[in-house]
Design a protein that fits this description.
- Helix content is 79%, strand content 0%.
- By secondary structure, the chain is an all-alpha fold.
Length: 135
Amino acid sequence: MTKMEKEKNLELIGKTIKMIREQKGLSQEELASRCGYTSRSAINKIELGKTDMAYSKIINISAVLGIHPHILFNSALSDEVVKEGVLNEIKNRYGEDAVKLLELYTSLNDKDKKNAFILINGLVNEKNSQMSSKI
């Protein structure tokens, strides 16, 4: 594993820890305390991917968060592998057009994404309104 790959994996693990911590309603201070750290800065560095954690630390943080450690290790899968899996799931559930629509949407800037959402929402509301008037 190259240094760059290792850094990316640490960053992905850190982002996953942060996401789960926030879902559980824990502050960095609370997680640090429960994991035996003396300050929140240790958790902050972990979440930013700046700390190379020993396996025992990953086990400890996982236990405190109430998750299996493999969740953190799986989070280190490459973005392309994850993206491919998500797109395949969308294709299987909603068809190829849904994948194309998502790819088009993600290519837009933030302003155009808002406009696309407004347009699609308007189309759906119009369709629902027409269906209601037929009843």
